[in-house]
UniProtKB/TrEMBL annotation:
Keywords associated with the record: Aminotransferase, Pyridoxal phosphate, Transferase
InterPro entries named among the record's database cross-references: Aminotransferase_I/II_large, Class-I_PLP-dep_aminotransf, PyrdxlP-dep_Trfase, PyrdxlP-dep_Trfase_major, PyrdxlP-dep_Trfase_small
Subunit organization: Homodimer.
Record-annotated Aminotransferase class I/classII large domain positions: 58-396
Pfam families, alphabetized: Aminotran_1_2
PANTHER family documented for this protein: AMINOTRANSFERASE, KYNURENINE_ALPHA-AMINOADIPATE AMINOTRANSFERASE, MITOCHONDRIAL
Cofactors named for this entry: pyridoxal 5'-phosphate
Protein name as annotated: GntR family transcriptional regulator
Keyword Nucleus annotated: no
UniProt keyword annotation of Secreted present: no
């Protein structure tokens, strides 16, 4: 069966059908362009890891090699290091989650947890409900298991409960099987918005009534700028929620350490799937992180990140107000992203080459939908460039957009 690629690829006819969804995303292509130093990239979601003082980590790395090398350099448990899992409990308690050390499965970033959950639950033709828009690489994972991603509408307070009810009814009326709802309730990627407490309760109730599992992805919850967001959905409901956390945003993504918290039966299968995929998550990374959490002021470091990102968010919002005063955008109270809405007739994907010519990059809204929606929106990331670069980037973006409007 011919599924993917083109005739230049000698293996074209051999790929599995599931690879059809693995076409290079807009985001990937952008990374190449936007990494040129003269381009202000508002496209990627790279954490500003230079904000971590080097000696906070060098001690942890050195102790890992010198004192804990026998285990840190060895294969480990498919569930992850018990000592690190204990510390993860402390991290999650900050978001109201109370779990046991055995409830946690350490994964290779939360990205791999997404892959494992998809592998456990998705057969071809199954439906995954997701916010519209949703995290691009989660959509890619679900599609790679030949699931259909059905988006449900959001507003500036996240997923709309009423729309979710209607989406479930519509999907079921079409005879399709819904496996889970994938949601990013706090500082959403890509919209930047946060689901209020009452909606969290309501959405969990809808999921319960409809026997739908909730997959709660929470990489940004601790990166709030003023007030903490409402507690995680997993803090309300333990049985019907798989919760994903990560050290990628509160420490550094290079470690590739995240985790899943899942109800007992699912957790056992997750551990087996983790072993089948990687034998054990990196012992070295887990040990360094465990040393770091045990010795450094990690809460203070998260505070430092909050300050850095708050300043960048402020720079972006004030630049947008100066440069594009008649447009609308979301106002994130944490995380990395602003969602900018364009007039209906503008197409952010078609505009991108002109933006790159003006030396600014962003992610077109279409990247965050499985169904081609999102043309008249874009995601702007404020996590990586300095405030001055952000202001310059928005100035260049306004030139491009105003040029389009003048056509
Ligand atoms: N989920 C969301 C919503 C994300 O934004 C990201 C990273 N951009 C991930 C998961 C993956 O994070 P990691 O694998 O680094 O933990």
């Amino acid at each position: 069966m011919q599924t993917q690629g083109n005739n230049m690829d000698p293996w074209y006819g051999l790929y599995a059908a599931r690879t059809a969804g693995l076409s290079a995303s807009e985001v990937r292509a952008l990374f190449a362009v936007a990494s040129r130093p003269e381009v202000v990239s508002l496209a990627g979601g790279m954490p500003f890891v230079s904000a971590i003082p080097k000696d906070l980590l060098t001690g942890a790395v050195e102790r890992t090699v010198r004192e804990r090398g026998a285990t840190a350099l060895q294969y480990g448990s498919g569930q992850g290091m018990p000592a690190l899992r204990e510390q993860i409990l402390e991290v999650m308690a900050l978001e109201g989650i109370h779990a046991g050390v055995d409830d946690i499965v350490v994964t290779t970033g939360s990205q791999h947890a997404l892959e494992l959950v998809a592998k456990l639950f998705l057969d071809p033709g199954d439906v995954v409900l997701a916010e519209g828009p949703s995290y691009v690489t989660a959509i890619t994972v679900f599609k790679s298991f030949q699931a259909e991603v059905v988006h449900s509408a959001m507003d500036d307070q996240g997923l709309q409960p009423e729309a979710l009810r209607e989406t479930i009814t519509r999907v079921r009326a079409a005879g399709k099987k819904i496996k889970f709802l994938y949601t990013i309730p706090s500082f959403h990627n890509p919209m930047g918005v946060t689901l209020p407490w009452e909606r969290r309760m309501e959405i969990l109730e809808i999921a319960r009534q409809n026997d739908i599992l909730v997959l709660e992805d929470n990489p940004y919850g601790l990166l709030y700028f003023d007030q903490a967001p409402p507690h995680a959905m997993r803090s309300i409901e333990a049985d019907g929620v798989i919760y994903l956390g990560t050290f990628s945003k509160t420490l550094a993504p290079g470690f590739r350490v995240g985790w899943a918290v899942a109800p007992h039966a699912i957790r056992e299968k997750l551990i087996l799937a983790n072993e089948a995929a990687v034998l054990s998550p990196s012992s070295f990374s887990q040990t360094v992180i465990s040393e770091y959490l045990g010795s450094a002021d990690w809460k203070g470091q998260i505070d430092t990140f909050r300050g850095v990102y708050r300043e960048r968010r402020d720079a972006m919002l004030s630049a947008l107000a100066d440069q594009l005063p008649t447009f609308s955008w979301t106002v994130p109270t944490g995380g990395f992203y602003v969602w900018l809405r364009l007039p209906d007739h503008l197409d952010s994907k078609a505009m991108l080459p002109r933006a790159v010519k003006e030396l600014v990059a962003y992610t077109p809204g279409t990247a965050f939908y499985a169904d081609g929606s999102g043309r008249n929106a874009m995601r702007l990331s404020f996590c990586y460039p300095t405030p001055d670069f952000i202001r310059e980037g928005i100035r260049r973006l306004a030139i491009v957009i105003n040029g389009e409007l003048a056509l």
